[in-house]
Write a structure and sequence with these properties.
Elements (H helix, E strand, L loop, with lengths): L1 H11 L34 E7 L16 E7 L5 H20 L4 H11 L16 E5 L2 E6 L8 H26 L8 H24 L7 H16 L4 H30 L4 H9 L4 H12 L8 E7 L1 H4 L7 H11 L4 E4 L50 E2 L5 H4 L3 H8 L3 E5 L2 H5 L5 H18 L4 E5 L12 H20 L6 E4 L1 H4 L18 H17 L26 E5 L2 E5 L9 E7 L6 E5 L3 E4 L7 E8 L13 E4 L9 E7 L4 E6 L11 E8 L8 E5 L3 E4 L7 E9 L8 E7 L9 E9 L2 E7 L6 E8 L17 E4 L9 E9 L2 E2 L6 E2 L19 H10 L9 H8 L16
Parallel strand pairs: 5-6, 5-7, 5-8, 8-9, 9-10
Antiparallel strand pairs: 1-2, 2-4, 3-4, 11-12, 12-15, 13-14, 13-16, 16-17, 18-19, 19-22, 20-21, 20-23, 23-24, 25-26, 26-28, 27-29, 29-30, 29-31
Helix pairs in contact: 2-3, 2-4, 3-4, 3-5, 4-5, 4-7, 5-6, 6-9, 7-8, 7-9, 11-18, 13-15, 15-16
């Protein structure tokens, strides 16, 4: 009955009945058919309308070409949010103008605007037939139609009024909505923008349905349709703020909107009848509006899931056997009944490394490393992960913001995420790619590039967590703190009304710091507890800032332990490389530790490896080795050692080069050598130069390779002391290295050691100590048989500390005197003053205690034997055996050599 009554009233408008004020203008002119007064409206609601001929439009006359042009002004009166309402008006006008610029008429542009904000009440198919211009003047949206564009039929006026009133009513609705928010509230613009669009589309459709005598449903239907429109406009982001606004302020909002609609209806006469009906019944929709928004927030009946792209590095991708924080976050979405679709090009974690022989060292002009276009994402997840887990992501081990800023536009264009979660930045600073400011610049470019593909995409950008201290990297915790502070200051400036950016407090939720990291298994990467903590950080931001989900659960007090198995079927066999040790792969093992020693030795040498294989290449033919293996999950536990096994080395590798000479330069070292000779040297492919920074705690062994007999190494740290060694790579692989003289980068010939002191330890042993210098890379001990007045002799054993013990001094240590030189590569100081121990009192019987007994040759052999340290004799090679090698996810202790 209401629909029939309204249809009859609207039909009456076809008879030409217009507002009473129309008589003030020339009714013989088309522009005056439905004119209102252009006088200001007292006690105006949020929006009023003035309409009529340009000749009577007062100051607006200047916008028209003729007095008979039609001028329509929608005037806004929202003093509490005047500037924001003006901004909404300009935004609406700009959208319509942009459509006109593409060749559309004003009628088509207003139609397109309504269609873009459609709620589904009544699909309008007739845009109307008119053209003109639209602009803003102060607090008004003004439409101007030339005389020739003005129609006289009721249908023409119905389409014109529906299009204009709908667009203008959306702005009024946005202004009314803004009043309930605190000034500057983050949720105000996106929530009220959604409300403005939804109400504008709804009013247009409702008026057209009424004019076309179509069914425009009831208030419950309106509430459901508007709820869906509002929710869809915020795309899940700020959903909680929208629901809160509806629950607390929808009644106030509707009251203001009702007053506005009724005021418009009074000015429009019979054409305003749909607005009168809407104003009378709008309040009835509020309960359904609030209820439906609550359902949509819980994912009930929401058939369009939130598309989420998770972007990050190793902490985001995860390692084989991890659940990952991505899974913990997905579970939260699932438990909160929020429909979500994770999107991205990859599905897996990083897989455990495949067993293979040692990698051939890259030549100096090669650029090693995996392509960023083909990362390893083949790894599986923990056994307890839900099979329904949406595994899609864009996280890659080692990834930097510097890299992803160049890739994200393509990813967004391909996968169309609504929301991007970002965990990048550590590798930029950890690997010396950029400092805090450079990393921040990369992150801003990342945001800009994503918006280039989708202007309304939302962001949750995490800060960078701290990690346990790395020796020599005092810069890293400072850089991390600086970046996090800079990010928090910058992000508010990055946000736009349609593309907000929010900070995720990863560092504050993740329990990892300089001295301890209970959230990480290796001082950085998350264990099961860390996964929950990272997910909690993102959940908090998504809930508090974007209104997603009903609750954020606490991080659980207990978490699943990582399974820990033992290494089984361990085998050691002689191979062309020396000895190859293999065992059965353990799924989810973060790594393994292999311990080895020569038969007869007591101390084990422990080597961490990433795959289920280890090769002993620093060996000679016939050496017999012992081995044992364990699974090493770092902070997640280690297994028991496997039973000891043995194998004898029979390598087919080539001998190292000979006569290796080193010369320190300002930022590195120059080397030259003689080519390798002997067995298996006919297939020599390259020579490897190995350097190790002794002054940086935790520094990794660095290496490069060349073809030829000389090399120029740069990028070392001036003033630091470096061990240097070389080995030969043939068709089989690399062999036993030879030590070269160490160097002090940037230093010249060191000064002569001073204050040489000697102490007799027993009849055939002495201890030497002296004062060295920072310029010295090492020291050589010289000796001679003073009772025979023999020549000064030395060997190439270089001591890296200002002390050395010497033994096997037969027939007695008092027969010898000692001196010391300081070396820096081939640069060597003069000898220090000589020292000796006094001879024991003579027994008068000669023999072993008499000075001068024995031979010089025997003496030389004895002293040299005292410097031996087993295979790879020389202190430098002994230290290199124990030095750490870089592994997956490692962070350098110093800037890498270029």
């Amino acid at each position: 009955m209401l629909l029939l009554t309204l249809a009859m009233v609207v039909a009456g408008s076809a008879l030409g009945s217009g507002p009473a004020a129309a008589g003030e203008q020339d009714t013989g002119t088309a522009c005056a058919l439905h004119a209102t007064s252009f006088d200001a409206v007292a006690n105006a609601p949020a929006m009023t309308i003035r309409m009529g001929c340009a000749g009577g439009a007062g100051s607006l006359r200047t916008l028209a070409q003729s007095d008979s042009d039609l001028v329509v002004a929608f005037d806004y009166n929202v003093p509490e949010r005047r500037n924001e309402t003006r901004a909404l008006a300009r935004q609406t006008v700009a959208a319509v103008q942009a459509d006109q610029s593409s060749g559309h008429t004003l009628a088509q542009a207003l139609y397109d605007h309504a269609r873009d904000n459609a709620v589904g009440l009544y699909p309008t198919t007739d845009a109307g037939d008119y053209d003109g211009r639209i602009t803003t003047v102060g607090d008004s949206i003004v439409l101007v139609l030339p005389t020739g564009e003005i129609g006289t039929s009721a249908t023409w006026w119905q389409k014109f009024i529906a299009g204009g009133v709908g667009a203008a009513a959306g702005v009024a609705a946005g202004g009314i909505c803004l009043v309930v928010f605190a000034p500057g509230a983050a949720a105000a613009a996106p929530v009220c923008g959604a409300v403005a669009g939804g109400v504008g589309g709804f009013v247009t459709e409702m008026m057209n349905a009424s004019f076309d005598h179509a069914d425009f449903k009831d208030a419950d239907t309106w509430g459901g349709l508007l709820a869906a429109a509002f929710w869809g406009a915020v795309t899940g982001a700020f959903g909680g703020a929208l629901v809160k606004w509806a629950g607390e302020s929808a009644g106030t909002f509707v009251s203001g909107l009702q007053e506005t609609l009724r005021g418009l209806a009074a000015r429009l006469g019979n054409f305003g009848s749909p607005l009168t009906y809407l104003g009378d019944h709008l309040a009835e929709m509020v309960p359904r509006l609030v209820a439906r928004l609550g359902e949509l927030q819980r994912g009930v009946g929401n058939s369009v899931p939130l598309r989420v792209m998770v972007v990050g590095d190793s902490m985001t991708q995860g390692y084989e056997g991890d659940s990952t924080w991505r899974y913990r976050l997905w579970k939260w979405f699932h438990d909160e009944h929020v429909a979500v679709d994770f999107v991205g090009p990859y599905k897996g974690t990083k897989a455990q490394a495949q067993p293979q022989p040692p990698a051939r060292p890259p030549l100096q002009d090669e650029t090693p490393g995996a392509s960023p276009d083909a990362p390893d994402t083949s790894g599986g997840y923990a056994a307890g992960v839900d099979p329904a887990f949406d595994r899609d992501h864009f996280g890659v081990w080692g990834r930097q913001a510097m890299q992803d800023k160049q890739l994200i536009r393509g990813m967004v264009a391909q996968y169309h995420p609504d929301l991007i979660l970002v965990g990048l930045g550590f590798n930029d600073m950890g690997w010396f790619v950029s400092g805090p400011q450079g990393t921040l610049d990369s992150m801003k470019t990342f945001v800009d590039e994503a918006r280039a593909a989708r202007p309304d995409v939302k962001f949750a950008v995490a800060d960078v967590p701290q990690r346990t201290y790395i020796g020599g990297r005092d810069d890293l915790p400072v850089s991390t703190t600086d970046y996090d502070l800079m990010l928090r200051r910058a992000v508010p400036r990055w946000s736009t009304p349609v593309s907000p950016v929010e900070v995720v407090n990863w560092s504050g939720n993740y329990r990892c710091a300089r001295d301890a990291c209970p959230a990480g298994y290796d001082g950085l990467h998350p264990n099961a507890l860390g996964e929950f903590q990272i997910a909690h950080a993102f959940e908090t931001t998504l809930h508090d800032r974007y209104g997603i989900g009903q609750t954020v659960p606490d991080v659980p007090r207990s978490v699943p332990e990582r399974p820990l198995d033992v290494a089984r079927n361990v085998r050691a066999v002689s191979s062309d490389l020396g000895v190859t040790v293999t065992w059965d792969r353990v799924y989810g093992a973060r790594g393994y530790t292999v311990r080895s020693r020569l038969m007869g030795a007591t101390a084990w040498n422990e080597t961490p490896v990433q795959a289920n294989r280890h090769d002993t290449t620093w060996t000679q033919d016939g050496w017999e080795w012992e081995y044992s293996v364990r699974v090493d999950n770092a902070g997640d536990g280690v297994s028991a050692w496997s039973p000891v096994i043995r194998a004898t080395a029979h390598p087919h590798t080539a001998a190292p080069p000979t006569h290796v000479l080193t010369h320190a330069t300002l930022d590195g070292v120059d080397l030259s050598w003689e080519p390798a000779t002997g067995p298996y040297s006919d297939s020599v492919d390259r020579y490897e130069i190995i350097t190790w920074d002794r002054d940086t705690p935790g520094a990794f062994i660095q290496s490069t390779a060349v073809r030829g007999t000389s090399a120029h190494i740069t990028g070392l740290t001036p003033g630091h002391h470096y061990l240097v060694a070389m080995d030969t790579w043939n068709a089989v692989g690399g062999g036993l290295p030879t030590g070269a003289r160490p160097v002090t980068v940037g230093a010249g010939t060191p000064p002569v050691p001073t204050d040489l002191r000697i102490k007799s330890l027993d009849a055939v042993s002495v201890q030497l100590n002296w004062s060295g210098s920072p310029q010295a890379a090492g020291y050589r001990v010289w000796y001679r048989n003073r009772t025979e007045n023999g020549p000064w002799l030395s060997d190439e054993y270089i001591s890296d500390t200002p002390d050395r013990g010497v033994t096997f001094l037969f027939p007695g240590n008092w027969n010898f005197e000692f001196a010391v030189t300081a070396v820096n590569g081939q640069a060597e100081s003069a000898r220090s003053g000589a020292v000796s121990v006094p001879a024991p009192p003579s027994t008068g019987t000669g023999g072993a205690t008499a000075p001068g007994t024995g031979t010089s040759a025997a003496s030389r052999t004895a002293v040299r034997a005292g410097s031996g340290v087993g295979p790879g004799a020389g202190q430098g090679l002994a230290l290199l055996r124990a030095a750490p090698t870089a592994s997956t996810g490692s962070v350098p202790a110093a800037r890498p050599r270029r």
